[in-house]
Structure formats: C-alpha cells, structure tokens
Amino acid sequence: MNMMDKRKFRRKYKGLAEADEVLEAQRLAEEKAKKDAAEQLAQQEAAAQERLAAQQLAAEKQREAEQKAKELARAEQEKRAQEQALADQEAKRVAQEQRIAEDKARAEREAKLKAEQERLAREQAEAEKLRLAQEARLAEEQAKEKNRIERERRAAEEKAEQDRRTAERKKAELEAKRQAQIEEQRQAEEAAAAARLAEEKRLAEKRAADRALKEAARRAEAEKRAQAREAARIAEQERLEQERREAEQEAQRRAEDQRREAELKAQKDAEERAQAKRLAEEKRLAEARAEEALRLEQEKAEAARQAELLANPPTLWQRLGEFPVNAAHLARHRIITAEREDPAYTAFDVLRTRLLQALSENGWSRVAITSPTKDCGKTFTAANLAISLSRQENCRTLLLDCDMRRPSLHRAMGVTDPGAMGDMLRGKVDPAQHLVRLGDNGFNAGRNIAFGFNSIVEPYASELLQDPRTGQTLDRIEEALEPDVMLFDLPPALYYDDVIAFRPMFDGVLLVVGGGTTTEKEIKEVERRLGESTPLLGMVLNKAEQTEINRYQY
After folding, report:
1. Are strands 436-438 and 449-452 parallel, antiparallel or unpaired?
2. Partners of 487 in the beta sheet?
3. Above 50 in pLDDT, residue 338?
4. Helix 378-390 crosses helix 345-362 at what angle (to 10 degrees)?
5. Looking at the DSSP assignment, which residues form a beta bridge with residue 438?
6. What does residue 370 show for φ and ψ, rounded to 5 degrees?
7. If you average pLDDT over residues 479-485, what whole number do you get?
8. Contacts from 392-396 at CB under 8 Å and sequence distance 24+?
9. What Å distances lie between residue 351 and 36, 467, 523, CA to CA?
10. Strand pairing of 366-370 and 508-514?
11. In terms of C-beta distances under 8 Å and separation of at least 24 residues, what long-range contacts does 533-536 make, across chains too?
12. pLDDT over 50 (residue 553)
C-alpha cells in the first residue's frame, strides 16, 4: 500500500470514528432526555399522589366533623326526648293523683249524701234542715275544689311556660353550636383552597422549567422528536389530571350541596316537630281544661239532680232500667214501626188508634195477644204495636212476654239473657229490677214504654199464669207504674190452655191470624174456647198476599 492509499484510509477511518462519536453523543443525549423525562414523570406522579392524599385527609376530617355534629345533634335530641318523657310522666302522675283525689272526694260526697237520705227517711222534719246544711257544705266543697283546680291549672300553665322557655334556650344553644360548626367547615374549605392555589403555583413553576428543558432539547433533531412525544404525553396526562380534578371538585361541590340540603331539611324537620309538639301540648292543655270544665259541669248537674231527687223522689217508672236498641237489628227482625221505612207501618198506626178507642170506651187497659196456631206472627204484631203505642205522648205502655213455652220477644228487641218472667210473677224478683224501658234511639220512639222479657222456658206455664201470685204481681205493677195499656204476648190458643188459664188477668183479646195458614175452622175454635164472655177486640191478618199497601202512601 503506497502513501496515498494510506492517507486515504486514515482519512476514511477518521471520518467513520467521528461519525461514531456523533452517533454515540446523540444516543447519550437521547438516553439523558428519556431519563430526565422519566424523573419528571415520577415527580409529577408523586405530586399527584400527595395532592390525592391531602384531599382524602381533608375529606376524612370533614366526614369526622359531620359525624361529630350528627352525634351531638342526636345526643341533644335524645336528651330533649328524655326530658319530655320525664315531664309527661310527671304530668300523668299528677293527673292520676288528681283523679284519685277526685274519686275519693266523690265517694265521700256520695257516702255523705246516702247518709243524709237515710236520715231524711227516718225524720222528715229534721231532714229538711240537714238537706240545707248538706247543700251548703257541698257548695263550699265545690268552691274549694274549684279554687284548688284553678291553682293547679295556673301551676300547670306556669310549668308549661317554663318548659317552653327551656326548650327555646336549648334550641338557641344548638343553633350556636351549628353556626360554630359551619364556621369551622368554612375555615377548612378556605385552607383547602389556599393549598390548591399553592399547588397550582408549584405546577406552573414546574411547567416553566419544562418549557426551558424543551427549548434546550430543540437543538438536536432526535431530542426534539423525543421531547415532542414526551410533551404530548405529558399534555395528555395533564389534561386527564385536569379533568379528574374537575370531576373531583364537581363531586365535592355536589356532596357539599347535598350535605347543606340535608342540614336544612333536618333543621326544618326539627322545627316542624317542635311546632307539632307545641301544638299537641296546647291541644292537650285545652282538652284538659275542657274536660275539667265538663267534669265541673257534670258535678254541678249531679248535685242539682241529687237535690232534685231529694226534693222530688223519682217514681218507680223513672227508676226502671233501660236497654240499648239497634235500628238495624230491629229492621232484621221486621220491627217496621221503628224506622218506618216499610209503608206497612201505617197499618199498625191504624190498629193502635182503634185499640186505644176501644179501650177508652170500655175503661179497659189489659190486652192479650195470641194466635190460633204457631208462626202466625203474634210476637211480631205485639212488638210493632208496642213501638207504635210508645209514640203516643199521653199513653204509657207495658208489654210482657207471657209466652213462657217459646219466648222470643227479647231476641226481636236485641236483648240477651233478660232473666225469668216466672220469677217476677211468683214474687221472687222485684218488678222494678226485671222490667226495662226503651233506651235512647235514633228513630224517635217514645220513652213511655217498658218491656218484661223472658228467656227461661217454664215447664208449668199454664199453672203459673193462673196462680194467685201472678194476679197479685200484675196488680202491684199496675198500681205502681200506672200503665194506660198492658199488652200480654201469649202462646197459641189452640196448642195449650195458657190463654184460658190467663183469662181473668186481661180485659180483651187481639187475635193474629196468618194469611194462607190459618183456617176459618181454627178461628171459630178459638172463639169457642174463649167463650162469649171474652171480648174479641179485633183480628189482625198477617202475611197477607196480594196486598197493595203502597196505595196508601202519602
């Protein structure tokens, strides 16, 4: 190899070495840029982790503060509920003691009144003086009781006012605590905002440093391409990070709005509950005052009634017990004269008028109601006629169930276990204890009617009806109650001899015949058994077919 070739070879080798050095320098620069970019990315990720940890810590502190506020509110509410329960228990205890004292006082007054009545029965002249003294003493006791009740009412009102003021003071304290909690939360939010501003400033400084590095990297083509790719990736991450931060801020804002709405709703609910409790307390106090006033009025009325009873003792009729009546029950048992919805009630009104006229013309009062055979409707007729008679204000009516073989009048009127008619007729039971009057009703039936029910089957009914004790009992009832009409529901006339045995006890007979069931022969047989000396006041045709009672509606 000559010198020329050697020089060419050295120049070529030197060029290759320089090219290799350039490539090596470029490779080192790219590795450095990648390393720097990786370090920046790690720093950014560490910063993001720190921000996330700070946000989580702030959220945890906020949740703890909210939980603490809720626990304080719950404890305060439980404390108020316990105080209210204690107050209610105390009020109930006071009311119970008051009722016990009132019952005791009432029992004492009743005992004194009974003793006074017994003394009045022994000495009539001295009784008047003792009655006046008793009335004065009762008036004084009532005045004292009224003053005591007024003092207790004022004390209860003062206590209620004190409780209300205590509740308002506690409510103000709770409101102050809630405002303090809101202020603490606001300060925490301001601190979080300041931290966010500092973080954004630090990020801005880092972005400025990144731009300086990018400017330095533009000197090399490869570094420029690598920096461009890295910048694009960082920009994408920043955009994603920004979107994530915005989403977190939006979520926090929504959570804060929901929390505030929940607080406002809880406050509104608490105010509404307090208002409802206050209204309930006012209503309870008003009801208590109304009950107290009603009780005083009742006591006053009772005292007036007792005084009236002392002045005018009640008659035996007024002392008779009463039984409740149910219009629906009467309708189911075809007592059509009660509510008068069935136009057939007018037939009983006509029967009532004709019967009263016949009794008045002859000076009679006792009427036996019977039928030739069973299921003709004699009890149905007796009950409806009695209700129709009760609407006569100047007519006092007594209906006795003397069908002691198959008694059913008590079931028709809705009375259970009325006792034995036989015991009253024998004199074992006082008529004042056995006879009952018609109670208050909504169909305007009169109070001047009484019933003698029976639920015990008598094995010797005929013998009892003709027993002298039966006549004596009926005479005593007529003398004491002075009824204008006495109705006797008797068994069928052709089955037993009860009607014949009872003949001396009544003035006339009302015969109920069943349409389509009773024959002319049976009617004549009844007339024959009763004899010509027994007045037949009339015949009632029951269960008649093809009648046009609606024609007589007006």
Report:
1. antiparallel
2. 367, 399
3. yes
4. 80
5. 323
6. -145, 180
7. 92
8. 392/352, 392/356, 392/446, 392/448, 393/446, 393/448, 394/484, 395/356, 395/448, 395/484, 395/485, 396/317, 396/448, 396/449, 396/481, 396/482, 396/483, 396/484, 396/485
9. 125, 31, 19
10. parallel
11. 534/503, 534/508, 534/509, 535/362, 535/364, 535/507, 535/508, 535/509, 536/508, 536/509, 536/511
12. no
Which residue, 396, 368, 341, is CA-closest to 504?
368
Regarding predicted confidence, which is higher, 355 or 73?
355
Average pLDDT, the chain: 82
Six-digit token string for 26: 């470029």
**Cβ atoms within 10 Å of 189's Cβ, excluding its own:** 14
Q: Taking the CA atoms of the chain, what radius of gyration do you get in angstroms?
A: 53
* Tokens read off for 173: 């304290």
Q: Which two tokens stand for residue 487?
A: 């109705």
pLDDT of residue 554: 39
Look at residue 379 in the predicted model and tell me its pLDDT. 93
pLDDT single digits (tens) 245-273: 888 888 888 888 888 888 888 888 888 88
What is the per-residue pLDDT for 49? 79
HSE, side-chain direction, 13 A CA sphere, residue 458: 22
Asked if 453 and 489 count as a contact pair (C-beta separation under 8 A), the reply is: no
Check: CB of residue 69 under 8 Å from CB of residue 181. yes
Sheet holding 485-489, edge to edge: 321-323, 436-438, 449-452, 397-401, 485-489, 366-370, 508-514, 536-542
What is the C-alpha separation between 388 and 395, in angstroms, rounded?
11
User: Please, which residues have CB within 8 angstroms of residue 116's CB and are 6 or more apart in sequence?
Assistant: 127, 130, 131, 134, 310
Amino acid at 197: L
**Phi-psi group of 482: left, alpha or beta (phi > 0 → left; psi -120 to 50 → alpha; rest → beta):** left
b/e burial code for range 119-132 (CB count within 10 A of at least 16 → b): ebeeeeeebeeebe
Residue for token pair 């149905």: 380
Instruction: Kindly provide the residue ranges of all beta strands, DSSP E only, lying in 210-299, ordered along the sequence.
Output: none
Output the CA torsion sign for 416, 413, 465, 523.
negative
Q: For residue 534, give both structure tokens.
A: 């027994």
The CA-CA-CA angle for residues 150, 155, 161, to 5°, reads 125
pTM of the model as a whole:
0.47
CB 379 within 8 A of CB 408: yes
* pLDDT, average across residues 528-548: 80
Mean pLDDT calculated for residue range 507-517? 91
pLDDT computed for residue 447 by the predictor: 81
Cβ count near 259 (within 10 Å): 13
Give the span between the Cα atoms of 180 and 403, in whole angstroms: 88
Q: How far apart are CA 398 and CA 437, in angstroms?
A: 9
Structure tokens at 310: 């002392």
Distance from C-alpha of 149 to C-alpha of 299, rounded to nearest angstrom: 14
Can you tell me which residue has the tokens 């009952």? 436
Question: Token digits for 432?
Answer: 């004042």
d(C-alpha 402, C-alpha 370), whole Å: 10
Q: Rounded to whole angstroms, how far apart are CA atoms 315 and 242?
A: 101
Q: Among candidates 503, 506, 498, 516, which has minimal Cα distance to 376?
A: 516
